[in-house]
UniProtKB/TrEMBL annotation, chains A, B:
Pathway in which this enzyme or protein is active: Amino-acid biosynthesis; L-methionine biosynthesis via de novo pathway; L-homoserine from L-aspartate: step 3/3; Amino-acid biosynthesis; L-threonine biosynthesis; L-threonine from L-aspartate: step 3/5
PANTHER family tied to this protein: HOMOSERINE DEHYDROGENASE
Name of the protein described by the UniProt record: Homoserine dehydrogenase
One Gene Ontology term of the molecular function aspect: homoserine dehydrogenase activity
EC number: 1.1.1.3
InterPro entries xref list: ACT-like_dom_sf, ACT_dom, Asp/hSer_DH_NAD-bd, HDH, HDH_cat, HDH_CS, NAD(P)-bd_dom_sf
NADP in keyword set: yes
Protein's UniProt keywords contain Amino-acid biosynthesis: yes
NCBIfam families per the UniProt record, alphabetical: PRK06349.1 (NF004976)
Enzyme class of the recorded protein, top EC level: oxidoreductase
PROSITE patterns, per database record: ACT, HOMOSER_DHGENASE
Domain called ACT: residue spans: 362-437
Sorted UniProt keywords: Amino-acid biosynthesis, Methionine biosynthesis, NADP, Oxidoreductase, Threonine biosynthesis
Organism: Massilia suwonensis
C-alpha cells in the first residue's frame, strides 16, 4: 500500500517535532500503521528556515508559503494544522474539509471557539478531524475519554492542563517566591511566553477544558460559557497557609455534572484550587499535566504526562495520523464520533453560572485583632448556612492585625459571596476577603 | 441499525458488572456507539443464580449451562469470555473465532499463555479479540499503548498491576505489620482470595506484564520467559529501612529494552522493587493500579485507576464491546492489530535472563558487629565493580548483631549475585543477604 500523504501547515515547535519523530520512528510507525505516513508538503512563513528543519532531518518535500496551496493540493490526504490562532486556521480547516481531506490539529483555541462549526462540516463531508494534541500534549486523554470510558456515565473531569501555570505554582511553593518573580524565571527558562496572558489568566486551560467537557458529557463546545480565572493575583501567603492546612494550590480546570433544584447543569470553570496534599494530582509538579476523571463504573482514573513541548505534542499528532490513516476510507459510521457522542445524540444541558456551583472555600480575612471578631465571622457564616471545616489564626503582623483563615464545607457559591459581602462590611475587617475554591477530589 | 448481539461466558463478578453497567448506561452507550449492545445469551454453571442476577437488572436473555451453545449460536455476534482459567477458555475462544465471532476477554492468564495461538487464529479468520479488561481493570492502558503512543519507540513499561499485593504492601507500611498478618485482613476484606497464590507470588502481575511487553515492543507473548517473584518473603523491617532511606517498596512489573554487549534484549520481570518515595507511582496506595510508560517522543506518561472489581473491569469490557461494534464489519486491515504491530511485523528480540539485567540494589546484611566488617563488605562490592549510593547501619539488636543496609548504583545482576556469595561466606555475616531490586524511574 502506498504511503498516506500529509500536508503540514506550520513548521514551528510542534511542526518540527512532528517532522523529527516521523522521520526517526518511521520504521516502528509503519510496523504499527501497516502503511507509511509521509509529509509531502509544508506551508511555512519562512521558507529558508523550513528548508533547514526539513533538510536537517533528511526529509524532502515541497515547501510553500501559501497554506491554501496545501489544503487544495491533490498530493495531500491529511492536513495537519499547527498554525495557532483562530481565524486563518478556521478558514484553512474548513477549506481542507470542503476538499474532502482529513484534518489533524493541535489547536485548542480553534476547537474551543469554532469546534461546533468544524465538526458539523466534517460530519457533512464524511471526513475526520482529530485533535488528541489539543489537550494535555502527548497524554492520550482525548482517546481515554472518547473511547476508553465509553461504558460510563462520566461525572467529572478535573485537570492540571497548563504546564506554564503549574510550573509557576510549583516554584512559588518550593521557593516561597511571589508570582511576578517566578514568572520572570519561567520566561527566561522558556516555560512561559513573552506575552504569557493566555496561560497565566487561565484562557489556554479553559480552551482545553471546554473540549473535554463536550466529549465527556455529549454537549457542544461552549467556551463563552466557561468561567476563566488565572493565577496572576495569587499570593505566596495563601500557598503557605494552604500548605499548613494540608492543601496544595493548583490551577484546575473542572467540569462536572451538577443539579440545581432538580435541574441538570454542567459546571465549567478554571481557577486556582486548593486540593488535599495527599491526592496524587496534588503532587503533579513542574510543567507536567494530569487529568482526573470520575465516572460511575470505573471510578477515578488519572492520566499524567508532559502537556506541551515539541515531541510530546508531536506524539499526539502522529497518533492521530495513524488513527486517521487506518480509518481514512471506512464508512464514517464506523469511526469514533468527533465529540464522543453521535452528532444527532448531543444534548443541550446548560452550563451553570458560577453563583450556582457547589464547592468548598478557603477564606482569608485580614482583621484588626480585636475582641469578638472571630465570633462575628463565624456568626455570618452560620447565618448563611455555611459550616466551617478548619480555622487557622496567625499571629499578628506586628501591627495588631492578623490573618484568619477558614476552610468551609461544601456550599453554593452565591451563599459564600453574600457572606463575604457581610464580612467585608465589618469594621474589624481590613480590605477584601481572599476567596479560593477548594475541591476534595475524593 | 439493529443492536449487536453479545453472548456472555460466565456471570460471576465481572459478568454481573458487565450486565449491570450495560443496563444502567444503555442510553449513554448507544448515544456513543450509534447502535445498541444487547446481551442475548449467557452461559453459567448455576442457572438459578444467573437468572437472579439478570432478572434483578430488568434484563431478559437466554441462559444456558453449556458455554459451547453460546459460541455456536447464530444469535451471538460477539463472545465475551469471563470464565477464567486456561484450557476451557482457550477451547471456547478458538471455537468462537472459528465460527467467525469477535471475542472480548478479561482473561490475562489465557492471553499470556495462549495469546500467540489465539491472535493468529483471529487474524486468519478476520475477527477481533479485544482485551482491555485483561490489564489494570478499567484503566485504558492497552488502548494507550496500542493507539495513544503509536508515534513512539517505547523504552519501558513499569506497573503496579496487582491490587491485592499493593493493598498488602500499603498496609504493611502504614501499620508496620508482617505479611502474614496483613494477608489475613486482606482475605477478610475480600481484597485477597482464599488461595492467594497467583496474586502474592506475582503470577497475575506477570500475566499482565507479558501482554503489555508484547504490545509495547512488537514481540510475541512469552510468559514462560518472565521472571516472577512475589511479596510473600518480604519483611516489615525492609519496608521500614527503605522508608528511612527515602524509598517505598512496590510489587512492580517491569519490561524494558536493554542492551547486553551490543545485542538488543528485553527485560521482563515482576518482583518487589524499591522506588524513590517522591515518584508519583510510589504514592499509589491500596488496591489501586498504575502503569508508567517511558517512550522517546512523549517522555513519561502514567495511567492510574482501579485495577480490579466488578464495575471497573466491566468498564473495560464494555469499552471493547463498543470498539468491536464500530469495527465489526470493516476490512480487518483498518483495525488496530491485536499486538499493536502488524502480524507480519513482529520481531523476535530475546527476553534477557535475570543475570543480564541492569538495575540498582538494596542489600541488607545481618552481621556480628565486629571490627572491620564494613571494610570487608565495601571491598567485596568494590572488587565486583559495584559502587555504593547509600549506607544505613542500625544499632545492635541487643546481642551485638546489627543490620547493615547498602543501596548500590546500577550494575549487572550477575555481579551482585557474585558479590552476595562472597559476602555470605564472611565469618562476620549471619544468614542470608536480603537483596531487593531498586528502580529510580527517573
Amino acid at each position: 500500500m502506498k504511503p498516506i500523504k500529509v500536508g503540514l501547515l506550520g513548521i514551528g515547535t510542534v511542526g518540527a517535532g512532528t517532522f523529527n519523530v516521523l522521520q526517526r520512528n518511521q520504521e516502528d510507525i509503519r510496523r504499527r500503521a501497516g502503511r507509511g505516513i509521509e509529509i509531502t508538503m509544508v506551508a511555512a512563513r519562512n521558507l529558508e528556515r523550513a528548508a533547514r528543519i526539513i533538510g536537517a532531518n533528511g526529509g524532502a518535500c515541497q515547501i510553500v508559503d501559501d497554506p491554501f496551496l496545501v489544503v487544495d493540493s491533490p498530493d495531500v490526504d491529511i492536513v495537519v494544522e499547527l498554525i495557532g490562532g483562530y481565524e486563518l486556521p478556521r478558514e484553512l480547516v474548513l477549506k481542507a474539509i470542503a476538499n474532502g481531506k482529513h484534518v489533524v490539529t493541535a489547536n485548542k483555541a480553534l476547537l474551543a471557539l469554532h469546534g461546533n462549526e468544524i465538526f458539523a462540516a466534517a460530519q457533512e463531508k464524511g471526513v475526520m478531524v482529530a485533535f488528541e494534541a489539543a489537550v494535555a500534549g502527548g497524554v492520550p486523554i482525548i482517546k481515554a475519554l472518547r473511547e476508553g470510558l465509553t461504558a460510563n456515565r462520566i461525572e467529572s473531569v478535573a485537570g492540571i492542563i497548563n504546564g506554564t501555570t503549574n510550573f509557576i505554582l510549583s516554584e512559588m511553593r518550593d521557593k516561597g517566591l511571589d508570582f511576578a518573580e517566578v514568572l520572570k524565571t519561567a520566561q527566561e527558562l522558556g516555560y512561559a511566553e513573552l506575552d504569557p496572558t493566555f496561560d497565566i489568566e487561565g484562557v489556554d486551560a479553559a480552551h482545553k477544558l471546554t473540549i473535554m467537557s463536550a466529549i465527556a458529557f455529549g454537549i457542544p463546545v461552549q467556551f463563552d460559557k466557561a468561567h476563566v480565572e488565572g493565577i496572576s493575583a495569587l499570593q505566596a501567603d495563601d500557598i503557605r497557609y494552604a500548605e499548613q492546612l494540608g492543601y496544595r494550590i493548583k490551577l484546575l480546570g473542572i467540569t462536572r455534572r451538577a443539579n440545581v433544584d432538580g435541574v441538570e447543569g454542567i459546571e465549567l470553570r478554571v481557577h486556582p484550587t486548593l486540593i488535599p496534599a495527599q491526592r496524587l494530582i496534588a503532587n503533579v509538579e513542574g510543567a507536567m499535566n494530569a487529568v482526573l476523571v470520575e465516572a460511575d463504573a470505573v471510578g477515578s482514573t488519572l492520566y499524567y504526562g508532559k502537556g506541551a513541548g515539541s515531541e510530546p505534542t508531536a506524539s499526539a499528532v502522529i497518533a492521530d495520523l495513524v488513527d486517521v490513516t487506518r480509518l481514512a476510507t471506512v464508512d464514517p459510521y464506523c469511526r469514533v464520533p468527533h465529540l464522543a457522542f453521535q452528532p444527532n445524540q448531543m444534548t443541550d444541558v446548560a452550563i451553570l453560572p458560577m453563583a450556582d456551583i457547589v464547592t468548598s472555600y478557603y477564606l482569608r480575612v485580614y482583621v484588626n485583632d480585636q475582641l469578638g471578631v472571630m465570633a462575628d465571622l463565624t456568626r455570618i457564616l452560620a447565618d448563611a448556612g455555611i459550616s466551617i471545616d478548619a480555622v487557622l489564626q496567625k499571629g499578628t503582623h506586628g501591627d495588631a492585625r492578623t490573618d484568619i483563615i477558614m476552610i468551609t464545607h461544601q456550599t453554593r457559591e452565591k451563599n459564600v459571596n453574600a457572606a463575604i459581602e457581610r464580612i467585608e462590611a465589618l469594621s474589624s475587617v481590613v480590605g477584601k476577603v481572599i476567596r479560593i475554591r477548594l475541591e476534595t477530589l475524593s
